[in-house]
Design goal:
four-stranded antiparallel beta sheet, alpha+beta, Immunoglobulin-like, about 15% helix, single chain, about 35% strand, globular
Length: about 210
């Protein structure tokens, strides 16, 4: 049984008739009570569900990373949902039901901090080496910004990442990956986060690497 807080114009807690009231991160909202139905989904609905599921699957291995990478764009939603929404709108292609992820257009971080210049990745035994130019002084770039690096392994449906790595001035970072990834092709990304953790750079796609 639900109740109305502060009268009819106040917050709803629980169920009141066909309306459900709840709160998320201090934001009160209401929604209709779910209605059980056996109706068949239309083709556009099936396409949407398939595309969305593909986007969620792409983000899931790096959930902890995108919670930081997309925190500046999480307006009224979680950072993971913001990242998934961007993937759904910009990095899914193909025809139903065979949708795929366009990894070069996928973002793992999004923000206004100056991004990387000439970012590259290469394979070392059970590691991936990221390199970049020190573009300190370009835009908002600071030498103390920390590297955020990611590798996504679609074959294993796994990811590896560092959210506070070497400084921008250091120009390189090593990311350890599982030995079980040997022989797999992975997608790599680099972004930066400010020293105080308040600003994030939009990620740069560093290409594919075959793990050794």
């Amino acid at each position: 049984m639900g109740k109305l807080n502060q009268g009819i114009l106040g917050n709803i807690s629980g169920k009141v008739g066909s309306i459900v009231g709840a709160s998320w991160k201090g934001i009160s909202y209401i929604r209709s009570k779910a209605v059980s139905t056996k109706r068949t989904l239309t083709l556009p609905q099936l396409k949407h569900c398939s595309q969305f599921s593909t986007a969620v699957a792409a983000m899931k291995p790096i959930t902890a990373f995108v919670r930081i990478g997309f925190k500046c764009y999480a307006h009224g939603q979680s950072a993971f949902n913001a990242a998934t929404s961007h993937t759904y709108n910009h990095a899914i292609f193909g025809e139903y039901p065979n949708y795929m992820v366009d990894y070069p257009n996928l973002l793992v971080a999004r923000g206004t901090l100056t991004g990387a210049d000439n970012a590259l990745s290469s394979a070392l035994p059970s590691k991936i080496k990221f390199t970049w130019e020190n573009n300190n002084g370009s835009g908002e770039a600071q030498p103390t910004d920390k590297a955020m690096v990611v590798a996504i392994n679609p074959a294993k449906r796994e990811g590896a990442h560092i959210t506070e790595g070497a400084t921008r001035a250091a120009k390189s970072e090593l990311l350890a990956v599982s030995p079980s990834w040997a022989g797999d092709e992975v997608h790599t990304y680099l972004a930066f986060i400010s020293e105080d953790g308040k600003e994030v750079a939009t990620s740069t796609y560093c290409g594919t690497v075959t793990v050794v």
